[in-house]
Amino acid sequence: MAAMKQGINVPVVSMVGLIALLIMVNLVLGVQAWYYWSTDRLMAERAQDARDRDLRMLSEEQTANMTAVRFTDDSKQTVAVPIDMAMDMWLDANATDGTTPSSGATASVE
After folding, report:
1. Are 99 and 60 in contact (CB under 8 A)?
2. Separation in Å, CA 101 to CA 25, 80, 85, 98
3. Distance, CA of 110 to chain centre
4. Distance CA 58, CA 48 (A)
5. Concatenated DSSP letters for 14-72?
6. What 3-state class would DSSP assign to 95?
7. Smallest Cα–Cα separation from 46: which of 58, 36, 54, 57?
8. Please, which residues have CB within 8 angstroms of residue 32's CB and are 6 or more apart in sequence?
């Protein structure tokens, strides 16, 4: 029988090591890119949620201001009244035929 060579095949080991290194670098860069993409997406979602929450709060505040009877100045001389109530009050005050056209809306300011 022929004797087998007992040495290390340096070119094959080097090539396998180089390929393993390239695969490892590719995996690390891929995971890092995925991490940055997912954190950017999460931050964008959180920012959108904050904008939505701010817009919702502003809308609720504006709705409350439009539907409440309140003083608009510190000297309590000017009152803001919802338009429906103001129209009913004007009709009550300016009825010419002696009937009351409104549903009996009255305004009281605390």
Report:
1. no
2. 81, 22, 12, 9
3. 35
4. 15
5. HHHHHHHHHHHHHHHHHHHHHHHHHHHHHHHHHHHHHHHHHHHHHHHHHHHHHHS-EES
6. coil
7. 54
8. none
Predicted confidence at residue 108, as pLDDT, reads 54
Q: How far is CA 88 from CA 1, 33, 100, in A?
A: 116, 64, 9
Predicted local distance difference test score (pLDDT) of residue 2: 57
Q: What does pLDDT average to in each consecutive run of 10 residues of the chain (110 residues)? A: 72 96 98 96 93 92 86 84 87 73 53
pTM over 0.70, yes/no: no
Residue 91 to residue 53: CA distance in whole angstroms: 39
Between CA 32 and CA 28, with CA 47 as vertex, the angle to 5 degrees is: 0
Backbone angles phi, psi at 71, to 5 degrees: -80, 140
* pLDDT attached to residue 66: 83
